Amino acid sequence: MEFFSPTDLLGSSPILALGLFSLIALLVNAFLKNSAGMVFYVSAVGIFVAIGCSIYTFPMNATAFSDMLLVGGYASFFSVLFLVIALFSMFIAKPYLEREQYHYGEYYVLILLATIGMVMLASSADLITAFLGIEMMSVSFYVLAGYFRGKLSSNESALKYFLLGAFATGFLLYGIALIYGTTGTTNLLRIVTMYPQPFNDPLHIIGWGLILIGFGFKVAAVPFHMWVPDVYEGAPTPVTAFMSTGGKAAAFSVFLMTFSVPMSMRDERLMTVLAVLAAASMLLGNWFGLSQTNLKRMLAYSSIAHAGYMIIGIASATPMGQQGIAFYLVSYALTNLGAFGIIAMMEKENGGNLNYEDYAGLGKRKPALAALLAMFMFSLTGIPPFAGFIGKYYLFASAVQSHMTWLAIFGVITSLFSTYYYLRIIVYMYFKEATNHEEIKLPGLTFATVILCGAGIVLFGIVPSLIFDLMKSIF
Amino acid sequence: MQSYIPIFLMIGVSAFLGIVFLVLQRFLGPHRPNPEKLSTYESGMPPVKSARERFSVKYYMVAVLFILFDIEVIFLYPWAVNFRALGLFGYVEMILFILILLVGYLYILKKGALQWD
Amino acid sequence: MNMYEIIFYFFAFITVASASVVVFSRNIIYAAFSLLFTFFGVAGIYVLLNADFLAITQLLIYVGGILVLLLFGVMLTTNTVNIDIKSGSMNVLAAASVVAALAGLLGGVFWTSDWFVSKQMGELPAQTTSKEIGTALITTHVLPFEIASVILLVAIVGAAMMARREGIKSQIPSSK
Questions:
Q1: Residue B32's domain spans which residues?
Q2: Which CATH number fits the domain that encloses residue B105?
Q3: Tag placement on chain A: N or C end, fewer CB within 10 Å?
């Protein structure tokens, strides 16, 4: 019987740090009255410590806990991304929850716990850890989506998300069981080595198919996207910001890692399935996005479409595609956090001020806010010099590289659709007269976060090598 | 499989007895109903209103917490079976496992989730 | 047909028969109680597969816990806003075709695949699996083991948050 090796402890240090601080935060919340503010600081410190641990382990390239956990490189890169997302979404949440008078410490505890799940997902080298990570993240999300317990829309959001999410997890688990049944192991590294060549075992194929359904649900790809609009619209805005960025990024990190196993053979059938999934998501996401009037719903459909763009990177199965996904996730996370941050500031009680018309004349009323929102919309559309453009360029290029030019062309055409609804908000902000003259309060913390997000997408849009240099050592 | 024979026997005997008693009382027992006997509480208070009422959410809380700690106990079982072989390391691990849940327990205790009023 | 197979078909019959009651019963309470036998039958099959620990878990958690929660769930929701909880049949044709396709797929896979069959199948288990599981949980699978406790913690916090009355500003009309 041996105690942990140093690699085990170092490798799991971000998880350990987050776990420790979430326990402390929970105790603070339980034993001190009116401690929501203090829980916020404890959680923020926990996230900073975890970021430190992740950065420290970045140069390592190992596995921990008998090949259950990846250490360094891939895991560290994504962990830092999730941790930053969690931090930013907490910054957006604090003023929002205080305004809505729903400021409780549990919110931050649940964010920390969800982040543990995300970090597990990025580090999982085993289907068991992947499953536990997904569960931990999802259960926290179900609760967070229903955080406004008194609001019907929030309850609806939580219930829909929970029922469909639990169903999707069932598919994932069934798939994992079949993979285990055919290979005798759940470890990705071992499945790769004992992979039947070429894989024609029907049980094995169905296993991967079921896992694909589970992941497809978590990343919100068509045809597993039905939950997205209602859940995103009904959940409290800072929670939507966190789910749509952190949840998606975490799901993609595990999707990419897990599917690197069957894709290592560059199996034509699987590539086609993924390509069709990507094409359907891009088409339907953008198509339904056109007719939305509510900004949160519009961003929900946009999130489906962006899942489609990122699946291109998995379908192409090239290092360029994988780097493209990683870069795209960074840019998408910053852009969406920024956009939701602005929505959170604009929102009035009981879900008011969420429609396009409410943003009319914002260019004159709050020029800085309007300029930032315009930047985020440009980045989502994929217009240079913002980060969204570089990400899309890499993903489409990877499709061409893998002889799927049709997919790249399809992506470009559907991006053109999306221009309409992304730029429509800009038209409202700058070319329509304001109808609503209520004062808009800009809480410092949220506004600073939004500015940071804006700075991020400009910086990474102009100097993408900042991220691509890091990724050369990962992929 | 051998070790399960008593369990199967037990299941068989209990199922058999249950069926036998149900059948026997049908044939042996006297059957003379009257309104008093057929009322819900034969020798209790007359019921005031329908029993089909919405239950308090407090029951749900208790049931959920019961399941969660039930699962905790399930995890204890395989560890307890070879407690000696797993040694100090296993002990420390299990303490850690329980401590995490203890924090959860303290939380619900302080938040008053277990208080009935 | 040996003893092993007879017992297997006995449990399989209980599972399938009671599961169809769950699906087809129009009364949700009957469905919930029928689920008891489904869980029980599955536990029996676990025993036959030499997964005794799993069988115990199935009995303790599903029969002892989940089912109680399910019944509480029914009691918590019935007659709140005068909605009868009944399971009717809708979209029979669409559902039947999906089920047929799925059954065809699973059946086809069942016949054509190379099963990774354990050598000890259908024989006496050398010893109970609890010991091996205990060892695995503390050694190779220690990380999932500890994480499982954190997931339980999430569930505790979530349940307490959802069901707590303090500080609720309700839009939802109360029942009476």
A1: 2-111
A2: 1.20.58.1610
A3: N
Q: What are phi and psi of A352, to 5 degrees?
A: -80, 170
User: What pLDDT, on a 0 to 100 scale, did the predictor assign at position B83?
Assistant: 86
Count of domains forming chain B: 1
Tell me whether residues A104 and C167 touch, CB distance under 8 A: yes
Q: Is residue B116 part of a domain?
A: no
Instruction: Give pTM, 2 decimals.
Output: 0.91
Specify if C46 maps to a domain.
yes
Enumerate long-range contacts of C74-82, CB under 8 Å, 24 or more apart: C74/C28, C74/C29, C74/C32, C75/B54, C75/B55, C75/B59, C76/B54, C76/B55, C76/B57, C76/B59, C76/B60, C77/B54, C78/B52, C78/B54, C79/B52, C79/B53, C79/B54, C80/B54, C80/C175, C81/C175
Residues of B in contact with C56 (CB under 8 A): 74, 77
Residues C1 and C71 in one domain: yes
SS3 state at C28? helix
Domain that holds residue C54: 1-83
Q: Which of C83, C102, C117 is the last residue of a domain?
A: C83
**Complex-level ipTM:** 0.92
Residue B117 lies in a domain: no
Q: How far apart are CA A315 and CA A252, in angstroms?
A: 13
**Domain edge (last residue) among C58, C83, C108:** C83
* Interchain CB distance below 8 Å, A110 and C108: no
Residues in chain B with CB shorter than 8 Å from the CB of C142 are 93
Average pLDDT per block of 10 residues along chain A, 475 residues long: 76 93 94 91 96 92 87 92 96 92 92 96 94 95 92 92 94 92 86 71 86 94 92 94 95 93 82 94 94 93 95 91 93 96 88 85 90 95 91 93 93 92 92 82 92 95 90 81
**pLDDT tens-digit readout, A328-339:** 999 999 999 999
Would residue C174 count as lying in a domain? no
